Every structure is written in structure tokens, then in C-alpha cells.
């Protein structure tokens, strides 16, 4: 028996037709009924173009209502959306479009010109689609939880991006797991400052439909716009990455957020302890979480009741998920393995990656971590970035965290360098916040890091190598 549920948007539009589904910062508001109507119209226009069940359709867009219409429209047709990062180069986009077998590309109006250079035959902007006639189509009334909803590529931080297949069930269970952890409140309004082409933004857009909860959508991250929304717009939950928390706390200064703001969900990368402490001092409810594209958003989250006691931990696996650490010998740190119905069934036609990553239903994440005596997860670093020096394991993110705690340092990247004596030694790349000398940095590290972890070389740089998801790419750190 296959599991089917009613189409989620149709269902929510039936249950709460006049309830707000999307609020934009320009004041635009869309109800669930309007979202259903506009998405179904969009689906009939796509039918006119020849898009049908099983078509693979690229979507290249910043956060905006037509992008959500496109995503829902494809689900009404049983077609598969391939969500593309707007910051990729044309070569990278061409690779993903081809790899995912996309035959159509739908783009935001502002990106049409760039998109016209891409190697897809049929490219249509949202406004092009708007003026098309509608063609009668049989729209899906149910969603099969095992069917493919979207393909989305990993960030490419450790290698070539891989196309993660998300089923409707992955999103359904992600929404269930999150609700069982954070709880649902009638007043909830979830702010999305992160792109919908990433899993955090996409999964929140779907949670909105499943919960009947409005999202407050920003076209792109802007610290002032996020601050304003948090202060004035009744936002209760917001998803962020580390850099955003830093900037938001700076803007907040001595003020405090309204008490309706119950959760600042932090994910996507390491969270330096100094930052978490700063948030704690200001009574700002930052919840650490851990997840990846493959897990359809967070799979481990620190629950509100434990947030203060377990600072630095990513928490426990969500209710429908499991977590274990695969350790070697007597080391407590090992690879993080996860399992659950929100975890992808695999990468799109990447058999070798699938064989490598999936074992008996468990996904080997490529991340290292450990569990404390109460079973709370601490994420340590990526396995590929581990530095082994004289037989000791060194985790670059620990060193980066200490360095970025120094007020003269804006950010730091650490990688290993071959060394005749030790095998490898850590070296650091520093972006200054204000004037500082290497001697001062060394002095700062004396009492904070064991000798073998102290970088042997320091380089001042203007910025660190980052990918299109703004993540530090350590294997590109060089001088
Ligand atoms: P690729 O898989 O192509 O190398 P990526 O892993 O950066 O890229 P994403 O799926 O965007 O692609 O990111 C997920 C990764 O982000 C996790 O595997 C982990 O390394 C990192 N991450 C997420 N949450 C945390 C966290 N709380 N602490 C540390 N790292 C985290
Ligand atoms: Mg990854």
C-alpha cells in the first residue's frame, strides 16, 4: 500500500481559506485560498507549455510569490521541480540542469536575461507564463508520499554538489518532526530570510501549508528588514545561519525582542560558543540545530527546555528520527549517522555516492560529532576537513571558533598543511575586524588552545573562499 494524503495546499485552502499564507515586506498578503487558486492557474498555464506529470523543471528565482506558485503548480501536475541557487555561475547551473534532466526552466523576471544563456531549450519567465492561456489539466488531488517532489543540490562545500531527491513524504515528516519539537501555536508566523532554493526556505514554505501558518517572506537577507520584522510584525519563529545571528545581535544592541519571538532556529553550519553565549546573555532564544539538504531541513534540534543547559549542543534527534555515532577504537568522536522518514532516499542517479552514504537505511553524513552522557549531539566538524598532526586529531572549526572569539578578528579559516615532522599542521587565514599582529594572536591562543592545535602559520586575507551558499570552502584556503 502506498501512503497518500490529500494535496496539502488544496486541503489547507479548504480548512482555512481566508487565513494568511504569505506576507511580504512590501505589505502584500496572500491567503491560502488565493495561493491555491493562483497555483492551480499557474499549473494550467504550464500545461499549455507542455509540462506534464514526470517533467523535470528548473526553477531559478529569488524568494517571491510566483516562485511558490511555480513549486505548488508542479506538484499539482506531478512534475518535479529542480531548485537552483541564483548565485551559481552559468557553468554550475548548466551542470545541475543537465544532471537533473531538466527540460524546462522557469525564472524570476529579473533573471531571465542571465537564464537565456543557459543550455535548456525552453526558458520562461514568470511574467511570460502569466500571460499564457490556461489549458485544461487534470490536477492531482492527492500526494503520494513516496513520489518525487523536488531535486535540490547540496552546497558543494566538500566536493561536487549532489542532487538530493526530496519526496512529499520527506517534507511531510520534516514538518511533523519540527512541530513535535517546537510545538504549534495559533499565532505562529515564521520568517524566511533564507532562500527557498535551499532546504531551509523550501521546507518552511511547506510547513506553512501543512500547519496553516503564515510565512513572512523576504526576497533576500537584509539585516534591517529582518530586525524590523522581528520587532514589529509579530514573527514567532525565524530560521537563520550564524552570520545572521551575529549581525542581528549587533543591530539589537541593548534593546530586546518582543516576547512573541519564541525561536531563532540556527542551522547550516557551526555556531561558535561565544556567539551562543552572547545571545544567552541578551535573552535571545537561539536554538541550535543540525541538518543538511539530505535531511529536508533540521533533523536534530535543541529543545527549548534544554537550550540554556546544553549550550553548544545541537540537541537530540527529532521524534521521527534516529541518530548514532560510528566511532573507532576508544575515540568518542565519530561520524554522525542519521535515519528517519525525512531523510532522502538518495542522490539523483548517483549510484556510487548512494552506496557510499547509505547503509541499511542510515545516512552517513560525513560530519563528525559526539554524544554527551545525556545523549545530546555536539557537531565537531566535517570528516574531510579533519587534520591529523603527530597522531592527534585536530578539528579546524574548534580553532576557528577560538580565533573568531578575539575581538580584533572578524572571521577565520583553518586548514591542514603537510609537514615533514608532524604529517600535517594547522595553518590559519584571518580576516581582521581591526588592527592586530600575529604576535598578539599567538599570545591570545596561548591559554585557549593546546600547543598542537595552535596554527603554525597565519595569513591575513581580505576574505575567505566561500561557495554559492556562503559556506567556507576549506580546501580552497591557500596563500
Ligand atoms: P556538500 O554536501 O556538497 O559538501 P554541504 O554539506 O555544505 O555541501 P548542505 O546540505 O547545505 O551542503 O549543508 C549541510 C552541512 O552543514 C552539514 O552536513 C554540516 O557539515 C553543516 N552543518 C549543519 N548544521 C550544523 C551544525 N549545527 N554545526 C556544524 N555544522 C553544521
Ligand atoms: Mg553535505
TrEMBL record:
Alphabetical list of InterPro entries matching this protein = AMP-bd_C, AMP-bd_C_sf, AMP-binding_CS, AMP-dep_synth/lig_dom, ANL_N_sf, MenE
Specify the taxonomic lineage: Bacteria, Bacillati, Bacillota, Bacilli, Bacillales
Show the PANTHER family listed in the entry. Answer: ACYL-COA SYNTHETASE, MEDIUM-CHAIN ACYL-COA LIGASE ACSF2, MITOCHONDRIAL
Per the UniProt entry, what are the Gene Ontology biological process annotations, in alphabetical order? fatty acid metabolic process; menaquinone biosynthetic process
**Record field: catalytic activity:** 2-succinylbenzoate + ATP + CoA = 2-succinylbenzoyl-CoA + AMP + diphosphate
Q: Where is the AMP-binding enzyme C-terminal domain?
A: 398-471
Q: Please give the function described in this protein's UniProt entry.
A: Converts 2-succinylbenzoate (OSB) to 2-succinylbenzoyl-CoA (OSB-CoA).
Keywords assigned by UniProt? ATP-binding, Ligase, Menaquinone biosynthesis, Nucleotide-binding
- Name of the protein in its database record: 2-succinylbenzoate--CoA ligase
